[in-house]
Amino acid sequence: MASKLQKRIVGTLVLVSIGVIVLPDVLDGKKEHYQESYESIPLRDDFDSEVSQAPIKAPQVVEVDAPDTKVKERQTNELDNEPAPKPASSDTASSSASAQEGAWMIRLGTFRNQDNARRLVKQLREKGYQAHILPKAIQPGDLAKVVVGPHVSKSALESQLTDLQSLTGLKGQLRKFDPLTQ
Question: Which stretches are tagged as biased composition: Low complexity (predicted)?
Answer without folding.
Answer: 87-99
